[in-house]
Amino acid sequence: VALDAQLQINRLKTAFSGMVSREFRTPLGIISAATEILERYHDRLDAAQRIQHTSSILDAVRRMTAMMEHILLLAGIDGGRAAAPPVVIDLAAWLSRTLVEIKGTCPSRDLCPKHCAAGTGETVCFVEHDIRLDIDPAADLRRARIDVSLLQHIVGNLFSNACKYSVPGKPVEIILRHAPPHFTLAVRDHGIGIPEDEQPHLFDGFFRGSNVGNRPGTGLGLAITRRCVEVLGGRIAVESRPGHGSTFTVTLPLAPS
């Protein structure tokens, strides 16, 4: 048991080191290069060029901040410090409103460096998807009692991943169903999929699939999602085939026991 625990710790250390090297090196390089250009050539740059380099620095800082927030959030959940008192919500209305907010932040912005091109106000996203929300109109989901902050992390992470690993132009489907005394939330994409032998490790901290290419990520999103689901007393399942997309299905109680 001690040997297995030590091997697990070593694997986590290796994965964490790889994530830090991969995900912090790029934004730090951007910050360094942009700062040096501003320092050396400030007088030669016009206003649009200065805004562009400043925006690059701010985007890199936001990316690093988001990574640190993921790490701190996971530590907080594991330490039992992330739960908030449940509140009563209209689940269907909340989901519709939340997806509008999430879409507005462009979950795949790390893949589109020209997002909100500096000085133009023009949004040029590299990844665009047809978002399809499917809510059973007969379902009574008006009195769900749940920790909204944890639910927000679940929806945000699954939706962001679906966009990030999908083929541009392909739909992302969000399906909400009532299965008393639970409800199910499924997020389906038609993207790269997940190799079968890697699926058992999907929810491990810092794990990333072998086919993600140069897509940025910490490998913490699904680990955080599973922890949030467990804290809420639910379960999460995945169905996926490489090249045919993935479906993540979360089952949660409508009210805490």
Describe the structure.
Mean pLDDT is 80; it is low at 109-126. This protein is an alpha+beta fold and 257 residues long. The protein contains five helices and seven strands. The strands form two sheets. The protein has a five-stranded mixed sheet, covered by helices on one side. The chain has a two-stranded antiparallel ribbon with strand order 1-3. Helix 1 (2-41) packs antiparallel against helix 2 (47-78), helix 2 crosses helix 5 (221-231) and helix 3 (91-104) crosses helix 4 (148-164). It is 44% helix and 17% strand.
What keywords describe this structure?
5 helices; 7 strands; alpha+beta; 257 residues; two-stranded antiparallel sheet; 5-stranded mixed beta sheet
Topology:
Blueprint: H1 2-41, H2 47-78, E1 87-89, H3 91-104, E2 130-135, E3 144-146, H4 148-164, E4 171-179, E5 182-188, H5 221-231, E6 235-241, E7 245-253
Helix pairs in contact: 1-2, 2-5, 3-4, 4-5
Question: H/E order of the elements?
Answer: HHEHEEHEEHEE
Strand ordering within the main sheet: 2-4-5-7-6
Low-confidence spans: pLDDT under 50, at least 5 residues?
109-126
Average per-residue pLDDT, rounded, comes to: 80
Number of helices: 5
| Outline | globular
Helix % is: 40-55%
Q: What characterizes the major β-sheet?
A: 5 strands, mixed
Separation of termini?
33 Å
Q: How large, in whole angstroms, is the Cα Rg?
A: 20 Å
